[in-house]
Specification:
Oligomer: single chain
Strand order of the largest sheet: 15-16-17-18-24-23
Helix content: under 10%
Strand content: 35-45%
Length: 375
């Protein structure tokens, strides 16, 4: 493979043997040349191979929404840097409901330093964007030929997204629950939210239905941390107020770690291992017994008595569900439901008004006649 410096016109040649894999895609970020096969990426500086990583099936290599890396199936984007370890972050691509691709995201192409993809029935070009996440490497860092320190990413337990005015209506099902369907878009089924249900009556209950049952907490491989939870907006200002979560980060195998963080004060109330119930009560798929009624693996949350946040009103609360899985500190799967904005069981225009059920993917309507985006 030959690279010509546009300023000096000097040519640097790197053999395929030195790279160690085929060259299907090539992208340049500053002084760094990235070469990708179908499932490997190698960084090269001044003709010398620096590092190689196998992130998965590579669909696109280049910049995207301010970072540099590879697009993978299931809306995943792996952020890369030149030096080992090359994987700096894992992000998720924002879905476009009008995209002709089944996943809602087409394969990107680089145009003038940005990632674009065809979308809509007319295949118009749309700039590809990433969902908010714990980005650790910027595009300028990916371009730099500088040593990097080996570090383990922090546990990715429900990063809080930026505020949004978008509200997804929740249609009432036959059982009276407000529900929101979510596309199958995570890397593994037990981190993929399939449906969120909410009961605002009396004591509020949230149900996060997963596409597959997670591995039992007592039997999970060492280093595998599976988390799920909620982000609540309780004050009507479109800014997150509380982070609720559960994971298996506990000293005893099979025990759980549950927590509620007040995002205004930064204070966290948590419980590690039994007895459970505070700061938030839960039901976990691990607790499902052979004689229980059949149904999807579900994580349930509810607040008991004095643990309920003082400003939580079931008729006006907005929320989204989240899941994540990390292996040895590296994020391997995650999901949001909904993917953008908030969900709500009551219409924002009139507390007490319920969304009117219509056909899937069509706008839901408030009883007052106002329309919001339905999923």
């Amino acid at each position: 493979m030959a690279v010509i410096d546009p300023d000096t016109l000097e040519m640097t040649v790197t053999s395929v043997d030195a790279i160690g894999h085929d060259a299907h895609r090539v992208a340049v970020a500053g002084d760094v040349v990235y070469v990708a096969s179908s499932n490997e990426v190698t960084s090269i500086v001044d003709g010398d191979v620096r590092a190689t990583v196998s992130p998965g099936e590579t669909q696109y290599l280049g910049p995207m929404d301010g970072v540099f890396g590879v697009q993978l199936p299931n809306r995943q984007f792996t952020v890369l840097r030149a030096n080992d370890p090359m994987v700096a972050d894992h992000r998720q691509i924002s879905i476009d409901p009008s995209s002709p691709a089944p996943s809602g995201v087409g394969i990107a192409s680089e145009i003038d330093g940005e990632a674009w993809a065809e979308t809509g029935r007319n295949y118009d070009l749309r700039r590809v964007e990433l969902l908010a996440g714990p980005a650790t490497t910027s595009l300028s860092e990916a371009m730099a030929d500088q040593p990097t320190t080996t570090s383990v990413l922090p546990v990715w337990s429900g990063p809080v997204r930026d505020g949004s005015a978008l509200v997804h209506g929740m249609a009432a099902d036959e059982g009276g629950l407000s529900t929101l369907q979510d596309p199958l878009d995570a890397a593994v089924g037990w981190a993929d939210v399939e449906r969120v249900a909410f009961s605002p009556e009396d004591q509020a209950h949230w149900y996060i239905e997963l596409a597959a049952k997670p591995p039992l907490a007592a039997d999970r491989e060492s280093g595998l941390l599976i988390a799920s939870g909620l982000v609540l907006e309780t004050t009507g200002d479109e800014v997150a107020d509380y982070l609720v979560g559960i994971d298996n980060d506990a000293p005893e195998p099979g025990d759980f770690h549950v927590w509620v963080t007040d995002l205004a004060t930064g204070e966290t109330d948590e419980q590690i291992g039994p007895p459970y119930g505070l700061p938030v009560e839960f039901v976990h798929p691990d607790e499902q017994q052979p004689g229980d009624p059949p149904g999807p693996p579900t994580v349930l949350f509810t607040f008991l008595g004095p643990s309920t946040p003082a400003d939580l009103d079931p008729e006006t609360v907005r929320f989204y569900a989240w899941t994540s899985a990390t292996r040895d500190g590296e994020v391997v799967a995650w999901d949001y439901a909904p993917d953008t904005g908030w969900s709500a069981s009551m219409c924002p225009e009139g507390p007490g008004d319920r969304w009117t059920s219509v056909e899937p993917r069509e706008p839901l309507r408030c009883d007052s006649g106002m329309s919001r985006l339905g999923r």
